[in-house]
Amino acid sequence: MRTEMLIDGEWSKGNGTTFPTLDPATGEVLAEVPEGTEADVNAAVAAAARAFESAEWAGMLPAARAKLLLRLADLLETDADAFARLETSDQGQPLGVSGGFAVPNAVEHLRYYAGWVTKITGVTAPLSIPDVDYRTRREPLGVCALITPWNFPLMILMWKLAPALATGNTVVVKPAEQTPLTTLRLAGLVKEAGIPDGVVNVVTGGPEVGRALVRHPGVAKVSFTGSTEVGREIGAQAGRELKHVSLELGGKAPSIIASDADIDAAVAGNLMGGLLNAGQVCAAYTRFFVDAARHDEFAEKLAAGAASMKLGHGLADDTQMGPVVSAEQRDQAERYVRIGQEDGAHLHDRAPLDDDRGFFVRPAVFSGVTDDMRIAREEIFGPVLSVLPYDDPDELVARANDTVYGLAAVIWSRDIGTANRLAARVRAGTVWINMPPFLDAAAAWGGMKASGLGREMGWSGIEAFTQVKSIWTHLA
Ligand code: NAD
């Protein structure tokens, strides 16, 4: 496959310098990718600005733009298997995750937003002024910078790209430096689908490329998914320049397991919610609040389930958990395992590991964790799970909310009234009841507090990439 950047419809090697992207299951170099520079960012933003102004894109009939998105969805679906294998090779996630969830979700987002293209309406309002007709239009913002993380590279890109294009914006994409390959392959499909040159540009590289995009005066909006630390920096810069900004940031999701919960269902759902993609999920279930009477039973069952997981290369048929994305992530997760032990939590037996070439982390389940321990407070973004006992259900909401984050939460209870009352009081953008962390293009997604600003998906995705214009007409 091509590994060049896409700028103004042309493949570009930039100034010729490259960086390697690795297979995290083996540590081997998969490909060399261009190290983009500020000059590449400038060229990409200029191309996107020209494309935004051109009649070909701005003036395109909604039905024609919808057709282009549907064509791109069809091309991606036809090539889904190759995309899934590439994502697994570059990111590490098992093929069941990339092929069964991430790539289909990306296709679904394209189709969902293709459906919106012809339905983005304004309003009319009865003003208390004589002889005036008043209506609104929803207009695109201009050039949007889409900056993505490494945990679900293609899927998270599509959460941004599909609504950005559906609403008539043009974009410059900056994939994470650890996992650029599916984004570059998608750039090939963008060309093949016939989306006009300059509408979608891709510049590869590290944080410097991201910074150059965020500060570029030609960029009207930054849509960012990544860490809270970087999100704060981007939010501050966007605030100074009064750019639109959406931030999807970190999380530390509480999982409340009430005394009446079906423990076996809760264990199965929490194993999936906690260990999907080796725990590299912003909404990963990580803090399990369990009624003290059932704490040991839950912790033992959760630990046994985690210890029985088969770790291996994501492309192998029997793999249940792949590696984490990099040596840094592995070292960070293992550092937290040591911290948990030093802080006095009980570490249960961990799964065996026969292959130590890649960046594998054996899942670690801690029980007897207290709220003040670092493993219960800080985002680890790896397979490290904390079980915390509770005695009094009245203390639950305060304890679950005692975090800077507010992305997601889950509640397990057979009493649907109790579960819904808790759901209303937990400060999180998404609350699931008795289920693993599912996503859908039609369901708004985003965080409260330090987990972000704004929402993606559903109608929120259209709002995030448009602004309202008021048009007044004097009728007299
Ligand atoms: P990161 O913040 O380190 O990097 C994300 C992207 O931003 C990368 O493309 C990176 O190159 C770029 N970047 C880094 N510094 C930048 C800067 N100063 N200016 C502009 N761009 C910059 O995050 P990561 O380590 O790739 O991803 C993990 C984090 O992402 C976790 O905190 C996780 O919770 C979060 N995440 C959130 C969601 C969500 O929907 N809320 C989804 C996935 C991941």
Automatic annotation (TrEMBL):
Residue intervals passing through the bilayer: none
Family per record: Belongs to the aldehyde dehydrogenase family.
Active site: 248
EC number: 1.2.1.3, 1.2.1.8
Pfam families according to UniProt: Aldedh
Protein name: Aldehyde dehydrogenase (NAD+)/betaine-aldehyde dehydrogenase
GO molecular function per UniProt: betaine-aldehyde dehydrogenase (NAD+) activity
Organism field: Nocardiopsis aegyptia
Keywords: Oxidoreductase
